Amino acid sequence: MRPSKRVASIPPYFFADLAGRLSEVAARGVDLIRMDMGAPDLPPAPHIIHALTQAAARPDAHSYTPFGGTPAFREAVASFYRSRFEVDLDPRREVLGLIGSKEGIFHLIESFVDPGDVALVAEPSYPVYASAARIAGGDVEGLPLRRENGFLPDLAAVDRDRLAKAKVLCLNYPNNPTGATADVAFFRRAVEFARAHDLLLIHDAAYTEVAFDGFRPPSLLEVDGAKEVAVEFHTLSKTYNMAGWRLGMAVGNRQAIEALYVLKSQIDTSHFLAAQEAGVAALTGDQAWTQERNRVYRERRDIVLEGVRAIGMTADTPRAAMYVWAALPKAETSSTEFCNRMLEATGVSTTPGVAFGQEGEGYVRFSLATPTARVREAMERLVRWRG
Ligand code: MLT
Predict the structure, then answer these.
(1) What secondary structure does DSSP assign to 130-162, as a single string?
(2) Number of domains in the chain
(3) Domain span including residue 56
(4) pLDDT by residue (tens digit) across 123-177?
(5) Which DSSP letter does residue 35 get?
(6) Pairing with 275, which of 37, 151, 167, 353 sits 20 to 30 Å away (CA)?
(7) 37 CA distance to ligand 1 centroid (A)?
(8) Whose CA is closest to atom 1 on ligand 1?
(9) Judgement on whether residues 304 and 203 belong to the same structural domain of the protein
(10) How many CB atoms lie within 10 A of CB 7?
């Protein structure tokens, strides 16, 4: 039994591996508090679940649906982009339905990166960008995200030889894991950079609807001409707490959307109709619910900030996304070791920064997708451990 070299050379996905390790810890009777994965704990709004059950009860709901998403879902995505970002999209050629944005990002990178090509990937970052590029045989050039630069990459500093071989640039704002945000001026520079160097700009906008204190994160497609070079990904996982439903979308450049469509049509046969109908209800229905949900995350954010600062970690207050990115206490050097010790001593599971790339070393990511009372308890345990 010999897997391909491509697969044999990669480790399992960080959170898949972690889930296995955590089952062993739980089997020892430890009361685990999971603040590792960004998996929303609250259910979606009732009108979304209603749309799902209504559609699932229809006798015609169980066949295959159109490749790339139903016309209604694609229209709903275009309508969301129009009302939320004032961005116009052609639902037939500039929108594609996905089985979650993770698979879409992976497959778009597979569609553009050949062996020997370079993928420019902000680091630390969601692990899928780099692993997709490596599986395609590409070479990953990490663009460091540093606190002193507001966790934005310094595009002018990219090595010229690597840039000459680069095919794609992967960015993600609001940022996972750092919680940093980017403004339209930065997106404009990224679009100009992609145009100047003939890159496909891949922007993961998973967290634009998770924001605090009145802040409204922009879409990269708000930049004039962005569609000439960019594809943006969005997911209903974080926006509407529909993570397990696996529903997302790619929008933007039509040639890239077409290439992704061709590859995906060989791999999957679209998505369950009822999930897409619920997606339509989510995207076009009342958006007030997300503001309420964000208030819950904001309260948790503040509890976490107080807790981590009490144990000597430093963390900026994030304006968006669902994470607190905290620097290790002085004298600690390994995020993996620190998280392992925290888990053993307190039962609180977090993500070591290095899981997001070497540039994440020195940090720990706390997810806010855990019930508020458990977040409070987790911080009390940390203070008892180290305070
Ligand atoms: C995260 O925790 O970074 C993501 O939610 C994990 C994932 O989507 O796989």
Answers:
(1) HHHHHHTT-EEEEEE--GGGTT---GGGS-HHH
(2) 2
(3) 46-284
(4) 999 999 999 999 999 999 999 999 999 999 999 999 999 999 999 999 999 999 9
(5) -
(6) 37
(7) 5
(8) 38
(9) no
(10) 9
